[in-house]
Design goal:
alpha/beta, binds adenosine monophosphate, Pantoate--beta-alanine Ligase, Chain: A,domain 2, Rossmann fold
Length: about 280
């Protein structure tokens, strides 16, 4: 596996390559969810590029950025084992030569006002900046992202439209632990016991889906927020939305594609998850 840290070196190398490039941007602390994106990119492209960059611009909480898990040497082993062709490992200066206070603005509209847009002000601006800069460096044919970050996928789709980009966005299913917990680098920050208890999030999402034909959403929302909060979670939101636009919905409407999304803290670690209802 080639490893590049400088954009100029990366571009020069990619220039000599023929065929399609599948790109998987990550923040490292890799797990099987990330590797599933690499595998899909490998199946569909001549060359697979992964980036590891913990993007300071997307953390609205400095403490969250500072304690974000970093496991670079095991990440490199895992990426080599699955046959990644190239790892891009830029420095903060390479991505933000003018500093992280000089960010570009992107009009992602409504998406910036709901769910994580509302609860993490500035987060998606940081995501747009990093994805735009990374994809400018890699110039991929297709970018592979996980549905675990459901809203992020819609934001990046909007970003690519705004840029009139020819990059295809391929969204991939959420990989879960055997207990149902969505795999996430942040799970590393949980104690062993909390990692078991965190499966309650998926239990709630599944229970809502199982009960949607007989119970109004608002009752289920109350019931499962109370359930989570009585199990030491602090729930930021548990909401029903149109899966295509993320417009919030007050009740189930089977003529629409629907998704329930949640953000909840356990031991101070912010966990997000979602489940399509139909
Ligand atoms: P991150 O390193 O958290 O920024 O994630 C990098 C990419 O991996 C994003 O596109 C995520 O949506 C995706 N991803 C993270 N967790 C999972 C998972 N459990 N299953 C599938 N994809 C995931």
């Amino acid at each position: 596996m080639f490893i590049f840290k400088k954009i100029a070196d990366l571009k020069q190398f990619l220039h000599t390559q023929n065929g399609s490039i599948g790109f998987v941007p990550t923040m490292g602390a890799l797990h099987k969810g990330h590797l599933s994106l690499i595998e899909k990119a490998k199946q569909e492209n001549s060359l697979t590029v992964c980036s590891i960059f913990v993007n300071p611009a997307q953390f609205n909480d400095k403490n969250d950025f500072e304690k974000y898990p970093m496991t670079l040497s095991s990440d490199i082993d895992l990426l080599s084992q699955v046959g990644t062709d190239l790892l891009f490992l830029p420095s903060i200066d390479a991505i933000y030569p003018n500093g992280i206070d000089q960010l570009d603005d992107y009009d992602i509209g409504f998406l910036d006002t709901v769910l994580d847009g509302k609860f993490r002000p500035g987060h998606f601006k940081g995501v747009c900046n990093v994805i735009d800069r990374l994809s400018d460096a890699v110039a991929p044919t297709a970018m592979y992202m996980g549905e675990k970050d459901f809203q992020q996928c819609l934001v990046v789709k909007r970003l690519l439209e705004l840029k009139n980009s020819s990059v295809k966005l391929i969204t991939c299913p959420t990989r879960r632990e055997t207990n149902g917990l969505a795999m996430s680098s942040r799970n590393e920050l949980l104690s062993k016991g909390a990692r078991e208890r965190a499966s309650a999030i998926y239990y709630c999402l599944k229970s809502i889906r199982d009960e949607m034909d007989k119970t109004p959403f608002s009752d289920l929302q109350d019931r499962y927020i109370r359930y989570l909060d009585s199990n030491s979670f602090e729930t930021e939101y548990l909401l029903l939305a149109d899966a295509e636009t993320l417009e919030l919905m007050t009740d189930f409407n089977s003529s629409k594609k629907m998704v329930v999304l949640t953000a909840s803290r356990l031991e101070g670690v912010r966990l997000i998850d979602n489940l399509r209802m139909n």
